[in-house]
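Hello again,

I reread your note about wanting to compare the complex against the isolated chains. To keep things tidy I'm splitting this into two emails, and this first one only covers the full assembly. Below are the input lines as submitted, including protein chains and any nucleic acid or small-molecule components. They are followed by the predicted structure of everything together. The single-chain runs will come separately.
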Amino acid sequence: MTFLYKADPARGAQWAARFAQLAPDLPFRVWPDIGNPADIRYLAAWSPDDLAETLPNLEVVFSVGAGVDQFDLSRVPPHLPVVRMIEPGIVEGMVEYVTEAVLAVHRDLFDYAAQQQARVWKARPVRAAASRRVGVLGLGMLGTAVLERLKLFGFACAGWSRSPHTIDGVECHAGDASFDTFLGRTDVLVCLLPLTDATRGLLSRRVFDALPAGASLIHVGRGPQLNTADLLDAMDAGHLHSAVLDVTDPEPLPVDHRLWSQPRVRLTPHIASATRPEGAVDAVLDNLRRHRAGEPMHGAINRERGY
Ligand code: NDP
Ligand code: OXD
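Full-complex prediction:
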């Protein structure tokens, strides 16, 4: 009975050390050194490609990321549970990233960066946080944690999800029927949706037009959710003020892409948050215990929904 890891090898070495410490009886291998394929019961991967089809005794496939859109689920045999990563490090990293981005927009740091370039010393009026309306797309593990933090600053917080949610101090919207109401009250739009057929290309002209003039976008979901041309048009037209993009399509962003040179677009290379090896191994081992006990695993995805 062996555990196989197929993702960043440097992190693989950290996983191996923690497995050796916490589960010394479970042999741990790092792809491509897989040994006998028939021994492998558990696989953790960023993207398994066709590997899950070739391991005859596989029981569970774990994603090392919070999202599973990078999986081709049609190549993971249907009887196998697919479990995404739920661990505190991903949540803490995302809360830090989005909080900093919202505060940068709120405290006019894009405008001050332009003023610095032009050597202009000019104070802008400071707006009360309560008058800045933040709206988060996605009320899952990450969207909820981000809102819980942002509301402590006093921002007017709202969220949007597929099914109804209730979060104390947050105006919660659900489904297509209230999408425009949600957008119309949102000055800073944060995208924390999983990439699915329903969310691909969602951040488009239709959404930007529904936001109030001067709104900003913080995109930390997945690159293909954003129509970049529509974003740039909305910014050129002066309707959108600024954008913080941690994810792009494609990644890496080509060196000649227009986004690089936009003064009011801030880019980071998909680093908003990442699984931390210690927390990841602890989460996987807890799920292995659950799996063996016949209990539901944390983060098991619903293949039909795609997340
Ligand atoms: P969850 O699965 O916990 O939450 C997803 C949320 O999105 C849920 O509230 C869900 O609604 C909502 N949702 C999904 N589809 C739709 C839809 N069609 N319409 C409206 N709402 C929808 O995901 P996480 O919070 O853990 O992660 C979100 C995403 O963040 C990941 O999938 C990944 O793409 C991205 N991510 C990015 C990272 C980065 O570094 N940039 C790092 C980690 C994750 P409901 O609650 O009703 O099901
Ligand atoms: C993830 C990511 O999904 O890093 O965990 O984007």
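For quick reference: The first helix runs from residue 9 to 22.

B.
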